[in-house]
């Protein structure tokens, strides 16, 4: 490494001397000598960039105090700048010299000077910068005022020309050639995080020519997507949508980036999940069916890989709610049929699932639930499966709208005439979709027996934690239940504790008995969090159950391993 540094320093002095001799290639001999040495000089610039990118601006000035002069002489040599490769390497080197967070008074001036050189590189074929600079001086402009303004005007000019392409189509009077657009996207790769270039980046992303293949460089898409995900650039939603439509790897990386945030070492409660999902802009982008289908397929794969992990189930439900909200804002007049988003589901089923419980009187919730159950059961138990994809596709669709499954459990617990079979089937199916009809029927019998015992307790003025535990079934029977069935019955017990008049007194003891592991404690906290958020969304008046759920959540948080519980404002700040 040290030997490379010595070699670079030696070459540096040689090329400083050469650039002075060439003097902007003003003579025939200088032009011939420039062309002769250009390959070696370009290799030197590459080595210089590799060295500069590892240093901060202060170290660069200490090691190469005249590097600005070297790069400036290079920028003003038309025989060097005529090569695209030289322009690219020069741009990278200049960006290394720019300070992102200027500290002293000299750094803003250096940044301004660098912007002037970048402006010259981008406009070398359009404007004689020497004449423009002399003209500006005659008018009394200082370079610090002139060059940023010129850079801004140059960017706006390029943006205007790109938009002219988009609007005029085959009208070639002011049309930028595809090669120019491609070259421009390559030059912008190291500049995407600079605020001055944001309008140009957005214009390139939204540019649509009539070429059969993609014009923009793949590395440009990668650089923009990386900057967006790391919040180093601010782009309009339309530009981000174009980025993800035009470059599938960028969309996939954005979804994986969101997954990493949602599935973290610390549990993300739903309000935090909603913020992360909305910040990603993925729900708004998913209004385009092509983007929605990619995101949905990635959710499907993760759910299969994790065997329906609760965190991923919560994540897809949060995403779906945000997506539906964005779709309602986007489609004041429907642009795409619902079939394009959910191709495996009957449109009538989607229509029912999309109904908001808050828009239906609570006493009538059983009606849409019975319709949903009937349609899902017909598809799931159809041995031919046809075009609807079978049980898994039914369950995956229902998972998007998991709020209805949560309501189903409450409806069954509160039913005075005994649990309706349609709702019982829907609840069991939502927890254990792979079961065959016979196994599902057996689980329904077991869950129905638990519901009967809980209903009896619900009418009792007092009961103990052991009574609640006994209602779940004999100890031997509970141990042999499949994990999905155990989780379902735990959630029924939690619903019972929230709604039973005597539940407040025994809730803590029951939770201690049913949660011997940290994993089940997380599951219980997630259930309580989802329940409180759902009550907020449907504007349910339940003062005592809400108070108990809130207290239990805070106590579980105080035991560690959980994020702080944010009880205000209500979910989505929806007005009831």
Describe the structure.
It is a single chain. With 576 residues, the chain is mainly alpha-helical. The chain has a domain at 450-567. It has helices at residues 2-22, 28-52, 57-63, 67-75, 78-81, 84-97, 106-123, 129-138, 143-168, 178-187, 198-206, 218-229, 237-246, 248-262, 270-279, 282-285, 289-305, 310-330, 338-341, 347-353, 366-380, 390-400, 403-414, 421-431, 437-458, 465-471, 475-479, 483-499, 503-514, 518-537, 543-558. Helix 1 runs antiparallel to helix 2 and helix 13 crosses helix 14.
Mean pLDDT level = 81
Strand runs, count: 0
Percent helix: 55-70%
For the report, how would you describe the main beta sheet?
Answer: none
- Taking the alpha carbons of the first and last residues, their distance comes to 67 Å
**Gyration radius, rounded:** 32 Å
Low-confidence stretches: 125-136, 167-174, 561-576
In what range is the share of β-strand residues?
under 5%
Describe the global form.
elongated
What is the number of helices?
A: 31
- Structural class category: mainly alpha
């Amino acid at each position: 490494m040290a030997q490379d540094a010595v070699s670079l320093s030696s070459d540096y002095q040689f090329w400083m001397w050469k650039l002075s001799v060439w003097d902007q290639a003003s003579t025939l001999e200088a032009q011939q000598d420039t062309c002769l040495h250009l390959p070696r000089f370009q290799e030197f610039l590459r080595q210089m960039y590799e060295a500069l990118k590892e240093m901060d601006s202060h170290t660069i000035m200490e090691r190469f105090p005249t590097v600005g002069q070297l790069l400036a002489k290079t920028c003003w040599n038309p025989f060097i700048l005529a090569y695209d490769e030289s322009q690219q390497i020069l741009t990278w080197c200049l960006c290394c010299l720019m300070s992102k967070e200027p500290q002293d008074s000299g750094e803003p001036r250096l940044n301004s000077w660098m912007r002037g050189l970048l402006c010259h590189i981008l406009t070398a074929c359009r404007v004689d910068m020497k004449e423009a600079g002399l003209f500006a001086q005659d008018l009394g402009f200082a370079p610090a005022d002139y060059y940023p303004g010129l850079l801004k005007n140059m960017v706006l000019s390029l943006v205007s020309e790109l938009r002219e392409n988009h609007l005029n189509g085959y009208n070639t009077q002011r049309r930028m050639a595809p090669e120019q657009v491609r070259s421009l996207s390559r030059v912008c790769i190291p500049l995407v995080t600079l605020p001055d270039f944001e309008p140009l980046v957005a214009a390139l992303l939204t540019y649509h020519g009539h070429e059969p293949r993609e014009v923009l460089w793949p590395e440009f898409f990668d650089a923009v997507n990386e900057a967006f995900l790391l919040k180093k650039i601010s782009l309009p939603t339309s530009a981000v949508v174009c980025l993800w439509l035009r470059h599938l790897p960028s969309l996939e990386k954005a979804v994986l980036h969101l997954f990493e945030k949602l599935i973290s070492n610390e549990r993300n409660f739903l309000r935090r999940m909603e913020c992360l999902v909305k910040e990603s802009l993925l729900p708004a982008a998913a209004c385009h069916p092509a983007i929605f289908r990619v995101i949905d397929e990635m959710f499907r794969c993760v759910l299969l890989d994790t065997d329906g992990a609760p965190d991923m189930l919560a994540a897809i439900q949060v995403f779906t709610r945000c997506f539906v909200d964005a779709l309602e804002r986007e489609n004041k007049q429907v642009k795409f049929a619902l079939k394009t988003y959910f191709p495996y589901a009957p449109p009538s089923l989607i229509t029912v699932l999309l109904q908001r419980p808050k828009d239906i009187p609570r006493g009538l919730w059983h009606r849409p639930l019975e319709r949903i159950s009937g349609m899902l059961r017909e598809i799931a138990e159809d041995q031919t499966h046809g075009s609807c994809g079978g049980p898994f596709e039914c369950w995956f669709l229902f998972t998007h709208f998991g709020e209805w499954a949560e309501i189903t459990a409450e409806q069954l617990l509160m039913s005075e005439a005994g649990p309706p079979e349609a709702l019982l089937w829907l609840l069991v199916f939502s927890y254990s979709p792979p079961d065959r009809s016979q196994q599902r029927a057996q689980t329904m019998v077991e869950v129905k027996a638990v519901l009967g015992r809980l209903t009896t307790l619900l009418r009792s003025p007092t009961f103990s934690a052991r009574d609640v535990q006994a209602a779940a079934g004999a100890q031997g029977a509970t141990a042999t239940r499949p994990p999905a069935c155990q989780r379902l019955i735990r959630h029924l017990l939690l619903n019972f504790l929230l709604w039973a008049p005597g539940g407040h007194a025994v809730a803590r003891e029951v939770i201690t008995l049913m949660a011997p592991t940290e994993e089940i404690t997380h599951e219980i906290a997630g259930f309580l969090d989802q329940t409180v958020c759902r009550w907020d969304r449907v504007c349910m008046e339940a003062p005592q159950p809400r108070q108990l759920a809130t207290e239990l959540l805070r106590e579980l948080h105080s035991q560690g391993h959980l994020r702080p519980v944010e009880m205000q404002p209500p979910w989505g700040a929806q007005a009831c």
